[in-house]
Design brief:
The complex is a heterodimer of chains A (224) and B (347). Chain A has 224 residues and is mainly alpha-helical. Chain A has eleven helices and no strands. In chain A, helix 1 crosses helix 8, helix 5 runs antiparallel to helix 8 and helix 6 packs antiparallel against helix 7. In chain B, 25% of the residues lie in helices and 36% in strands. In chain B, the strands form four sheets. Chain B has a six-stranded mixed β-sheet, with helices on both faces. Chain B is elongated. The mean pLDDT of chain B is 89. Classes of the chains: A mainly alpha (224), B alpha+beta (347). Chains A and B meet through helix 6 and helix 7 of A and helix 2 and strand 7 of B.
Amino acid sequence: MDWFPLINSLRIALIATVFTFFLGIFIAWEVAKLPRLCKGVLDCILTLPLVLPPTVVGFFLLKLMGTNSALGAWILQHWNTRLIMTWYAGIPAVIIVTFPLMYRTVRGAFEAFDHDLLYAGKTLGHSNTWVFWRVLMPGCKQGLLAGTVLAFARGLGEYGATSMVCGYTPGRTATISTTVYQLWREGNDALAYQWVGVNLAISFVVLVSINLLERRQKQDARRA
Amino acid sequence: MLEVKIKKRLGAFHLNVDFKAEQGVTGLLGASGCGKSMTLKCIAGIVRPDEGRIVLDGRVLFDSEQHIDLPPQQRRVGYFFQNYALFPNMTVEGNIAAGVRGSQKKARVRELIHAFYLEGMEKKRPNQLSGGQQQRVALARILASEPQVLLLDEPFSALDGYLRWQVELELSDLLKTFSGTVLFVSHSRDEVYRQCADVCVLNNGRSESVLPVQQLFDAPTTLAACLLSGCKNISRAKKTAPTKIFAEDWNVTLEAGREVPDTIRHIGVRAHYIVPTYESGENVIPCAVERVVEEVFSTVVMLKTPGGDKGYSRLRIELPKQQWQDLHVTGNLSVAIAPKDILLLTE
């Protein structure tokens, strides 16, 4: 069995999750400080990729990064390289698709956080940065971790947007999900079952770890 | 000294407070939702008032006209939160160290741990401590930051019963070591009576004038203050003669024994000062017994006045159990009120 699709899926998901992690936290923190109306509008826009079909995200990305687009053409001209139909084209696709999961989980954790702790830090003379890193982040640890695991798992199985921007080239852009689809088209059920098994195993591990995290979070909340 | 004169609108709620708190403990007494916590948050710089001025020992913390609005970090305000707001991810030591400003952190933390009887607990986390210990850590942490004013937000609300009483005694000892101004927020008249020298009543977002605490209980002059001081018998009232009042809800005319202000709106009489009598005469109200409620050490009797049985028309009296049994009341009971025990409320 050629393990390339697993490795490719893992590297796309890992790199994308790093971006999603910081973007999710940063934007959730900034949005929380906005007045109510702005918050509502931004919240809708930021959550959109969660409900939008991933093919729509893929479509927009092709329009933005394709060789016919301004950006794509410029890069092709200067570096003689394409942004799409490469493995790394999957990274922005996965970032966009997984962002709402991180953003919403983190925002939920921030909202559930006891704001008196932040005020206490500030009245004791500590900067907003200190309060953010030393009080808020440790307090929302479980939520951040849950959001990250969720985003990573979603990124690992992403199909719609990735297949549109990466295409399917065995050994170059193939991911687990595009491989399963391709194997089914070829009628190679035996191999398809193996990849389905890999997918199930990964999903199972993710769900168990999220449940464990949530239980710990509840225990922490009860103790506090 | 802390001078606060601020206004803040929040939806339909209007906060409009204006008071001065001298050195020592000043109480902010008010029902839930009357703006007590909001006032403290404005002083601490957590909530920004719409307009007004906050001055602490001559230092302007907030002034809407001069566009001064110091961030909470620079205000030197010690905020004692209802649930202590200890950082759950830090140890006792870490929490206290988080309060220390400037250098010499370690020595200062050791000093405070000693002063607040926290030796042996340095490495414990807040959730491993009792309520009283948590309170000491919170106070140690606040005093470590060398505040110029202490704001205590319902400090005992997280505790109940025996522990509450113990912790209150402890806190009042610790407060004696603080030389600045202390604002003590509470909805409990008993706590305020025990802890404070002066008190400011907050009524639906509006502050009344600051009074010595004894005066609030002996002679409240407003309806809100009277209710907060625990008075259960209230009637709308009109002045009918220089020293006489007509209690509308009770449908009786009473002698006040002193000049009644023209602006009188209500009168109040504490349950303890209404006494059963067999005589008739001045300030005697013929009533019918409506309900008898047995309390642990006393009997509470609800009486129907000549004014009927609606709302404020009822009188509530409280007697020792034995005294009530000895009265052998069968349905009607007259009660007398001494003129000096009638509280005249103008607002």
